[in-house]
């Protein structure tokens, strides 16, 4: 999951808005065409990518279910933006 924080400042240097962007990536069904070399179209039916090894290893890029590389699986990115607003201090007298 990737998290990014953005802050906006008004002219006086005070922070007025803060927002966080969180992204999570999930890999869905395998889309590798196993019959491409004979001019056909056939997928193996693997429904979701499951890593064969620990994060950071070469095996983490191979699917335990179908044996394909992660790039053959449909990539789904979910983005969530959370905004917080803090009004500027009003010090009028």
Spell out the blueprint of helices and strands.
Elements: E1 2-9, E2 15-30, E3 73-85
Antiparallel strand pairs: 1-2, 2-3
pLDDT averaged over residues: 81
Shape: elongated
Query: Counting H and I runs of at least 4 residues, what is the number of helices?
Result: 0
What ranges have pLDDT less than 50 throughout 5 or more consecutive residues?
none
- Helix content, binned percent: under 10%
Number of separate strands: 3
Biggest sheet: strands, sense, closure?
3 strands, antiparallel
Proportion of β residues?
Answer: 35-45%
Helix and strand element order: EEE
* Alpha carbon gap, first and last residue: 47 Å
Report Rg.
Answer: 23 Å
Q: Strands of the biggest beta sheet: in what spatial order?
A: 1-2-3
Structural class, from secondary structure content? mainly beta
What does the model show?
With 93 residues, the protein is mostly beta strands. Helix content is 0%, strand content 40%. The protein contains no helices and 3 strands. The protein has strands at 2-9, 15-30, 73-85. Strands 1-2-3 form a 3-stranded antiparallel beta sheet, with no helix packed on it. It is elongated and about 70 Å long. The termini are far apart. The mean pLDDT is 81.
